[in-house]
Amino acid sequence: MPVRVLQVLEAFVGGTRRHVTDLAENLDKNRHNVSVACSTLREPACEEHAATLERQGTRVYRVPMRRAISPVSDLYCLLKLAGIIRSGGFSIVHTHSSKAGFLGRIAARLAGCRSVVHTPHVFPFQMEVFPSTRSFYIKLERLAARSCRKIICVSSAERTAALDAGVAQESQLVVIPNGIAGNVGAPLDGAHGRRPATPLQSNEVPADLSSLRTRLGIPRGGLVVGSVGRLCEQKGHRYLIEAAGLIRDRFADVRFVIAGDGELRPALEELVRARRLDGRFHFAGHVSDPAPLYALFDIVAFPSLWEGLPYALLESMAAGKPVVGTSVGGLGEVIEREHTGVVVPPHDAPALAEALGSMLANSSVRESLGTSSRAAVQKYSLEKMIRATEAVYAEALPQ
Predict the structure, then answer these.
(1) Does 154 have pLDDT greater than 80?
(2) Which of the residues 27, 31, 278, 301 has the least number of beta carbons within 10 Å of its own beta carbon?
């Protein structure tokens, strides 16, 4: 009889949505019956993603969790989650990110479920917040950690942060990096009747590289620096724009393409104009299949201020691209360990500009780092992530 597993997530967007979707679609169907409890309030696309999961056979419970702290709403969602866990007979509850991580773990305890697993995808105290807020988040994480058996960290840096903050015991923590299919979007090996990871949904990009370059106004022989990610404070795009301004005169033919959308798009577009970079930047919006864009990019930049382990990094590596990224979370950890690019401090546009300039000026360095990227990404496979998670589930269950 398959074990009933409930995945709980508030932020049903971006990498966390992809992670939960990968689990729902690829966990061994003979051993696990997976349902998802999520909020669809963040943006309209959340409901579309939930409906897609349902069409593919996954039971989805809508729980109106809100990102911000809201005592009345949070209490309602806590009780609703506890009711779902109790009535659904779930043996394992796997929570994700901050809000669902706290509410879901407490709800599981109220419902009598002791086999609880949590994946933070970046602890809230790793984000850039006031010291008092950070202290508050640490206290919440310590409280919630008492209600779960295992905490899955997506990088060693995340595990170290948890130990340094004293939010969990060492025995609770296990590192399972995010993983992608060998070809992004390709199916797994067919074992256990698993499905492929769901591709991103949104705008289409022309597969013909020449027409894409023409459409974006990229000069013949001009190089392209790309960035893939939501346009939000976390991703630090403003530092990429500042860095582009610093190397504008040295690399007149270089163009910058940002794939993604979010609340900061108007502000970032205004910053491009203010730095007189009109014509140098193209905002591609949210893209359904980024593969043609990775083929277009010569370098991929990740100016993030905090991170878990971004899927866009793994996709860039799979495409054989050199990367420049900040020394935060699993981002800097993977780039340094796998020798796939250059690591710079966050909030440092001059350092980012220097790294980009050095790489733009040397094609042999770009080629060497790209080769290392393609070889190293084999360690970060979807198959490995799924099987390691299944092992954690088996360990979390009562013997």
Answers:
(1) yes
(2) 278
